TrEMBL record:
This is Ecdysoneless homolog (Drosophila). Residues 434-448, 544-553, 581-591 have a biased composition (Polar residues). One of its GO terms (cellular component) is nucleus. It comes from Takifugu rubripes. Pfam families: SGT1 (PF07093). It comes from the Eukaryota. Residues 428-454, 520-553, 581-610 are annotated as: Disordered. Transmembrane segments: none annotated. Residues 520-533 have a biased composition (Acidic residues).
Amino acid sequence: MDFLQRTVVVEDMVQYKLFLLQPDGSDVTEERLTHLAEEILVKFAPLLVQYIWQNQPFNLTYHSEKGGVPAHIGGSTQFGENVEDEWFIVYLLLQITEAFPELAARVEDNDGEFLLIEAADYLPKWLNPDSSQNRVFLHRGEVHILPCPSKFSTVGFSKDVVPSLSQALAELCSHPHVCQASPKICSALKKRLKGYPEKIKTGLHQAHCFIPAGIAMVLAQRPQLVAHAVSAFYLRDPVDLQACRSFKIFSPETRVLTSVTFTRCLYAQLLQQQFTSDRRSGFTLPPHSHPQYRAHELGMKLAHGFEILCSRVRLPSSEPDAPISCNPQWKRFLESLKKNDYFQGELEGSTRYRELMRSAEHFFKQSVAFESSALSPGEEILLLMQNGHPLNLEELKEREQQLPQEDDDSWLEITAQDLDHLLQERTGGRADAASQNCSLTQPTQQLEGTEERKGEMEHIKNEECGYSLIAVSQGMKKFLDTMSSHEGAEVPWDGSRQSFNFDPNSMASALERLLGNEMEELDSDDLDDDDESDKEREEETSGDTEQNGTETLNDLRSYMDQMDEELMSTKIGQSFTVTNSKKTDLDNSSPHLPVNSPPTQGGSEQNEEEIRPLDLDVNLVTNLLESLSCQAGLAGPASNLLQSLGINLPANSDPS
């Protein structure tokens, strides 16, 4: 019952732990781990400050030893609908362990070891959810998996053993190079993380919105609050909408046009929601044909989200919060930021310097000292409006003429070809294997010209490879020839030739199980027996083997004869395609099927039995195409099987 001992992770939440590796086995102190957490947050502050989290930010705190888990620094982040937050944290952990090689990280979510899920096609056969517990780590910027002992190395733990975290960390510290994952596993994860850290900016979306001036002022100081507002609107209930009947905090009469920064996930959530505001709210939208209709619609939805957040603050605190300068950690944190050139040489007191300072203060409250400053988003909004500068509508109206251009949102639309391309990327290895198979049978013409022409040629070549009926037949044959087990069939998508390894011991044991003989272990006394006894045993064993083999062959022939007799009385033979040549002798290369011929003109009541060889390739392709046609373009067994083999057939253009 090992699964009962595993930590239960909340859905859509990622947990991460950073352990300090101690080669000398010395104890880990709280002071050292806390100092490491501060160094990490300061070093990666330029990335973390500008990031807009869906629900919760990345944070690191000290955790003492408890329940067999050594003392460590770590945290948890609820990423909600934006799974990119989770993978950004994985990227952060890889960068942290590379910058701090004395640290090893573990990360998991409610799916468990989701890093292994991403590299599932390249995992060793012994590694599964039951045997992977406490084996997967991020260390020195790479993935490490504690192996199983083998003939060549004693490093690791048996697949039936669940090592404790202390044992696993000690093994990782002693043999880091042996524990490093295979290049294919590392490449699969790097492919998923491709684009970071530039992906942080490319994942943002700038859009124009007509919003109340108070919201514009709040977002200018805390751009991250847009995530809480969108989530409040997206997950609204009837009680929340009661507060939006009359906007008491953000009046619609003060609306101004401004540029708002979203993540792509937040923008899609806000845009795709169908919503009609209450007539009493004061928010009216122009006609759909109006050039700024979308800006009005987005602003109306965003204003509802901010109003909902503030309405949840029942009793605002009358005591002002202590200034951040009173926190003893802030002074050390600020000094570290200056050493790492966080302010980019800006003069103290300048506009850009104040913006960076506000972002640093917000990041410090959310990630470093978040336990002592647990303000709700609504309380933070009200506090910013209370302490902010008085609103100047004329100045905000003047800024409307200097707004940056909106980003193109064509990424929201995806065509069938784009979807096929994305699926092809996810099954890249299978597609490559299919391309190699069909390249032997499908000649392609060489196109010369520009780079676009070459790309078109490559696309056409891939389509022709996917349409090869010979590739369909060969792929199915390889699939049927592949060994399977009680866990399911393995798809032979890898087209590369693999070396043949022969293990005589495994071969001998397999033959013994097949023939029904059991070998007993020999002790030291058995080795002293004379040769004559051994020869007699061998003769008896060989005689029994030959007799068993003969009986098995006779039984198979009897079964085949009975099957032929049953098939003779049915019409199943008419459903198969046979070769044109009529043969009466058995051909070893093709199966044969008895087919009833019509009565002869001589009045004989007995039908002449005609044996014809089957054309396996034609029957296979015909049945697959009929199955695909019955699916009518939907998912089904035939399309799923061909897709797993890396074979893409075109849509049926024949309506008949």
